[in-house]
Structure formats: C-alpha cells, structure tokens
Amino acid sequence: MGIAMGGLDHTAAGLNIREKFFLVEHRIQEFLNNARAERMVSGCALLSTCNRTEIYISDPQSEIISPVQVLFHGLGLDENASEYARYFTTRRGEEAVRRLIETAAGLHSQIYGDDQILAQVKKAIALAHEAQSADAVLEALFNKAISAAKKIKTEVRLRQANPSAASAAVAHIQHFFGDQRDLSALVIGNGEMGRLAAGLLIEIGADVTVTIREYKHKPVIVPRGCRTTPYSARFENFDRYDVVLSATASPHYTITRKDIQDRARLPRLFVDLAVPRDIEPEAGQYAELLNIDALRPAVSETGAEQATPIKTPSAALEIIAEYQQKFYDWLAYRDKLAVKEG
Questions:
Q1: Are strands 89-92 and 2-9 parallel, antiparallel or unpaired?
Q2: Which strands sit side by side in the sheet containing 243-246, from one edge to the other?
Q3: pLDDT tens, residue by residue, 191-233
Q4: Which comes out higher in pLDDT, residue 297 or 64?
Q5: Is 326 exposed, middle or buried (0-12, 13-18, 19+ CB in 10 A)?
Q6: Whole-angstrom distance, CA of residue 4 vs CA of residue 331
C-alpha cells in the first residue's frame, strides 16, 4: 500500500488562488463521501486550511494515480484543462509521509510553528474516519504525524513569538498603532480564530467588542473582558473602533466597500484573517487593510521583519525521522501479518 499527496500552499499560490480551493467542513464531508462512494482510491483524507489544501491518498496504485486528479475530479475540475494545475505539487512515498509530519508540526505554515495546524490535522483525519474514507494506512500515518507534532511542540522550541496567525496579527496591530493607548477593537467572528485574537487583544489592553450570531442555540464562549454585539449590529458605533479584525467561516463578505465608503469616520486598520476572505479587497481603498498573507514575514516582538527562512532545529528533524520510521515499521509489520494470514 503506497502513500501520495497533492496540494497547493502559501509558498506556491497567493490568497486569491488558495481561497478558491478552501473547503469548509461540510464540503470536505461531501468530497470524502463521494470519493468513498466512487471508490477512487483505497483511502483518502483532505486537509484544508488558510495556508493549504492537500489531499492524502493510500492505494496499491499510488505510484501511478494522481492525487491532484482525484482532488480535481471531486471538485468538478479537469486536471489538464484547469488553469490551476500549475499551483499544485505531488509527493509520493517517503516525501508524502514526511510532508504530513512536518505540516502537523507547523513547519510549513506561514507562521512557523503555528499552534493551530495540529488541531486542523486532527480534524482532517476525524472527518475522513467519519466518512469511512480513511483506511488503516491513512489512520496510522495521521496518528504518527500527530504524535510527532505533539512531541516536537513539547520538546523543541521552534520560535520565540507569534505561534499563530492570530498572535501575528495582534503583533502587527501593536506595531501599526505604536504607543497608542486605549485602543478600541471590533472582532467579527466568535470561532476559534476570533476568540484567540480577541483574547490576545485584551492582553495588550485593548477595549474589545466581539460579534455573536443571534441564531446560535448552543452556549456562546466569549473571552473574558470582551463586550459583545450581535453580528447584524456590527456597523453600529463603527466610528469608535480603531481596528476591525474579521475571522469568520462565512461564504460572504462581512465588510464590503459599500458598507464603509460613505462613512465619515472609519477604523484606521482592517485585518482579515479569513480564507476565503471576509473583507472585500476594495475596502482597502478607504483604510489600511491586511489579509492573512500580509502576516508573512511575521513581525517579531521588536517589530523587525524576519527576512530569512527559519532553520528547523536538529531535535525536530530527529523526531520527524523517528516517527517516519515508526510508520514504516508499522507498515512492514502489517504486511508480514497479512502474508502469514494468507
């Protein structure tokens, strides 16, 4: 049984391309259900984040099957005719295995050592398990990648600051406003990213208001110290905010050019952490607008940009090699058992 992966990420494709391939949870479930029903491959899992969309497959014919073609077929695209094919990379065998382990550890994120990617990898295999599209090989591979990432995060210091897109965004905000005190911020979105950003803004002393959806029936979690306002009332008191940060999973813009073009006073800074984007790009004509790609290179604690790539510590590389070998040891043991039983 072989492994292959295909995908695009922030190193090969800008936000305008990546957002076209970003799949929310229910679309991932549909994709995996279709892949299983059509029996495209033995095993299939899909990882879709703001940085990347990657498909991982396991199949006896993995050396000749194109994982990108599997992805495009599931999305209704033709690989050869698609204008997007050039943004995708295919990896097979050990390269694909290593790629997933490194990705789970945050080594291929825009924010090096990103804390959120591990949860996203866990979610990817959980969705594949639920859809019954993940075979035993993919389950083992993802489990080894998750274990390796946990060990790296526990034992290796990858970087000193900005372990997530939200914290990098708050660093940008601090740098932008300098010594300004009594910063007033509106955070649109109360999901994981929104709550993290709101909490970090509270930590730097900002007065933070978080939008909440009126139709939600489950308990709403709001970071301590934050005010709340209904999402539908997000433009009320808009003139009192210095910065607006949006991080939702909405398929529609939360802020458009028309929403702000006639306002007498606007926030000085808009920050869009969503993929697909929450804030219409043309809104940048009226105020400073940063999207998630603007966080690379990340602003450090001193405000200086990191101009050179970060070298992965040797301890992390050793852990990656260790768990890569553990996966292949498991695969060899599984194959030996199959021969005996045969």
A1: antiparallel
A2: 227-230, 207-212, 184-188, 243-246, 269-272, 288-291
A3: 889 999 999 999 999 999 999 987 666 678 889 999 999 999 9
A4: 64
A5: middle
A6: 15
Count of other CB atoms within 10 angstroms of residue 52: 24
Angle at the Cα of 212 (from 209 to 218), degrees rounded to 5? 135
**C-alpha to C-alpha distance for 43 and 72, rounded to whole angstroms:** 16
Report all structural domains of the chain as residue ranges with CATH numbers, in order of start: 2-158+316-341 (3.30.460.30), 165-295 (3.40.50.720)
Alpha helices in the chain, H assignment, sequence order: 15-18, 25-38, 67-74, 94-104, 117-130, 136-155, 165-177, 192-203, 257-260, 314-341
Adjacent-strand bridge partners of 291 = 272
**DSSP β-ladder status, 207-212 and 52-59:** unpaired
Residues 6+ apart with CB under 8 A from 219: none
- What token pair was written down for 227? 């005010």
**Helices and strands (DSSP H and E) totals, the chain:** 10, 10
Other Cβ atoms less than 10 A from the Cβ of 45: the count is 29
Whether the Cβ atoms of residue 40 and residue 56 lie closer than 8 Å to each other: no
Q: Residue 246: exposed, middle, or buried by beta-carbon count in 10 A (0-12, 13-18, 19+)?
A: buried
For the entire predicted model, the pTM comes to 0.85
Instruction: Tell me whether residue 50 is one of the annotated catalytic residues.
Output: yes
Average pLDDT of every residue of the chain? 89
Q: What does the DSSP 8-state code read for residue 221?
A: P
Mean pLDDT of 287-299: 78
> Alpha-carbon distance 70 to 7, whole Å?
11
Strand partners, 3: 58
Per annotation, catalytic residue among 3, 5, 35, 50: 50
Which alpha helices (H) appear in 204-285, and where do they start and end?
Answer: 257-260
pLDDT tens string 144-163: 999 999 999 999 987 655 56
Number of Cβ within a 10 Å radius of residue 260: 21
